[in-house]
Amino acid sequence: MLLIFTLPPWKTVPVSRTPKKFFMSPDKACFDFIKSREGLRLNAYQDSAGIWTIGYGTIRYANNTAVKKGDTITQAQADQLIEEDIFERSIKVAAALGTIVLNQNQFNALVSFAYNAGLGALLNSTLLKQVKANPADPNIRNSFMLWNKVHQKGRLVPVKGLTLRRAAEADMYFS
């Protein structure tokens, strides 16, 4: 059975539902958290890993075109891009969790992680395996903290901003 699950007014997505499953969606706190950690830049810039980025950390536009040097957007476009990006990731995070029940802060923390580190990083991580095995496992905090590095000149280098973000995500997860 296919139902339409209505999210906040700007987004409606089809979601399969059964009585034993439900779909969590990111709340305002999730959006605010991600926006505050990403910061807003209306002109394209290279992030700490050298990836062209714009808005609130967007690396690809809705049409799948990569952000490139010289690109500019408006505040409204940045808001639309982050809303689409967060909802896209949240649907996939919810699907990856399956029937695992989390509280809103735990879900928000995983969506933030997927937004920043990438959905592939989350889906293949020890972090997700631990969450699925036991959402209350205190070692989940350590698994967040493993993701504080970027590739620079062929080496993994810790980045202070990522260390702070992973700590904040872990704090959110356990709050």
Give descriptors for this structure:
175 residues, alpha+beta, Lysozyme, two-stranded antiparallel ribbon, 46% helix, disordered N terminus
Class by SSE composition? alpha+beta
Radius of gyration from the CA trace? 16 Å
Return residue spans where pLDDT drops below 50 for at least 5 consecutive residues.
1-21
- Top-tier CATH class: Mainly Alpha
Q: What count of structural domains? A: 1
Described by strand count, sense and barrel closure, the largest sheet is:
2 strands, antiparallel
CATH architecture: Orthogonal Bundle
Percentage of residues in DSSP E strands: 15-25%
Distance between the termini: 35 Å
Q: Strand order of the main beta sheet, please?
A: 1-2
The helix count comes to 7
- What is the global morphology? globular
Q: Helicity, in percent?
A: 40-55%
